[in-house]
Amino acid sequence: MQIAFDNSYTTLPDRFYSAVPPSPVSDPQLIALNEGLAATLGLDANALRSPEGLAMLAGNALPDGAAGIAQAYAGHQFGGWVPQLGDGRALLLGEVVGRDGKRRDIQLKGSGPTPYSRMGDGRAWLGPVLREYIVSEAMAALGIPTTRALAAVSTGDPVHRERVFPGAVLTRVASSHIRVGTFQYFAAREDGEALQALTDHAISRHYPEAQGPLGLLASVVEAQADLITKWMGVGFIHGVMNTDNMSVAGETIDYGPCAFLDAYHPQTVFSSIDRMGRYAYGKQPEIAVWNLAQLATALLPLMGADRDKAIEQATEVVQGFADSFAAAWDRVFAAKLGLDTPREGDAAMAYDLLRRMALGEADFTRTFRALTGPDPKAARAEFKDPTAFDAWVTGWQARIEHIPHTKRIAAMQAVNPALIPRNHRMEEAIQAALKGDFAPFHRLNAALATPFAEPADSDLMQAPEPEEEVRATFCGT
Ligand code: AMP
Ligand code: MG
């Protein structure tokens, strides 16, 4: 397996990571290989499928030139400070520069223990691996910045959780794995030298135009405002927005108990461990600001000797999230409603619809998609009390009257997906996979590759029946 690794993270000081070999598995089998992504990365899909390629994807062999490191980081988990986290079940194989000129990390997830594993076994089971594969690829197809899935491999080894599950390894691809928590790790150790090196590294890698720590902070704030708005626009709930799960590159990262809204309600929470609703759908912008304030705090020591001035400047930058987010939110929801040149009252119209959807338990994806159809009144079926929709729709119809019909429909269909990875469908795919049947997993992936087109299998567009509904999701750690 020849891969032209071009590793930059390993040029950083030793205390940034631990070199550790992956732990071999007994019987690796390829579940899925993302050939399109392999091509973008400049990797040969046939070589990845070969016994040598499979050995790499399973963690049974480190190819020549691989970095083979677990990265150190810290973080706030549910608001509580944890000084030492790090890749406890992941291993950076290395970086490659793709055919598109972009540098990306290739990382194994579930490849065995590392010095950062704490009490964990360093492994992953099939369920979370398939979930991350499905959701991260669906997010990419929806046009949302995200880490990607290059491959999923079953290991042949048991993984012990609430019961025994088959083990699996995901190969994850990311612009980088630098987290807010990576900055916090060095800030907490008052390691100014490392903080400076990490800042320079992050700037040259992600925001070459940014000037210094304040410029980096501003770039991350913008990237996160854009990202969170995109999540809101498709009803995505990350579920564990801890600072160690927030990427400085602005990509969605660490798919655990994430889920998409079925019925719209801003307080929706799926994660079984999020008992206080800290990471509820509607709280995500606020939590992003909280996390960005932690990044700002970590960067303060690099912002000059005048600490008061630095705090003032950093605060202003973080507070800039509110305006960036509001403007982006208005744009995203105006587009979802097919509204053209902005007018006074557009955002209010969107909020009014959402309020009625919450009261009417309307399905988020289906309601917006129905508005793109030849008869927008089809959306009324999504509301418990359809007259609440009727009272809204006349105002909207008056607002869009002047826009050519076909033009508006095409524009709306390009931003309102017909298909999202619904929890009950993922659960169905995982349950089938546990019985050795990967067909539902592949069917779901194939359909989600073109989420703005109506899938041939219309059942994938249905909201769950009450008995199919998945109300809680698990980290799977
Ligand atoms: P996460 O919930 O995925 O954000 O993980 C939080 C922390 O726990 C990270 O440092 C992970 O590396 C670590 N972790 C999660 N699962 C495991 C596991 N099975 N073995 C070792 N470490 C783990
Ligand atoms: Mg994590």
Number of helices: 15
What portion of the residues fall into strands of 2 or more residues? Answer: 5-15%
> By helix and strand content, what is the structural category?
alpha+beta
Instruction: Tell me the Rg in angstroms.
Output: 23 Å
Mean pLDDT: 97
Structural overview:
Helices cover 41% and strands 13% of the residues. The chain has helices at 35-41, 45-49, 51-58, 126-141, 180-188, 192-206, 212-234, 284-299, 307-336, 346-360, 364-370, 386-400, 405-413, 423-434, 439-448; strands spanning 17-19, 29-33, 69-71, 75-77, 80-82, 90-97, 103-109, 124-125, 148-160, 164-174, 236-237, 259-260. Strands 2, 6, 7, 8, 9 and 10 form a six-stranded antiparallel beta sheet that branches. The chain is globular. Adenosine monophosphate is lined by residues 85-89, 116-117, 120-123, 240, 244-245, 254, 256, 475, 477.
Short description:
With 477 residues, the chain is an alpha+beta fold. Among the domains are: 166 residues, no CATH class; 77 residues, no CATH class.
What key attributes describe this structure?
single chain, 12 strands, binds adenosine monophosphate, alpha+beta, 6-stranded antiparallel β-sheet, two-stranded antiparallel sheet, binds magnesium ion, 477 residues
Task: Describe the secondary-structure layout.
Elements: E1 17-19, E2 29-33, H1 35-41, H2 45-49, H3 51-58, E3 69-71, E4 75-77, E5 80-82, E6 90-97, E7 103-109, E8 124-125, H4 126-141, E9 148-160, E10 164-174, H5 180-188, H6 192-206, H7 212-234, E11 236-237, E12 259-260, H8 284-299, H9 307-336, H10 346-360, H11 364-370, H12 386-400, H13 405-413, H14 423-434, H15 439-448
Antiparallel strand pairs: 1-3, 2-9, 4-5, 6-7, 7-10, 8-10, 9-10, 11-12
Bound molecules: adenosine monophosphate and magnesium ion (MG).
Magnesium ion is lined by residues 244-245, 254.
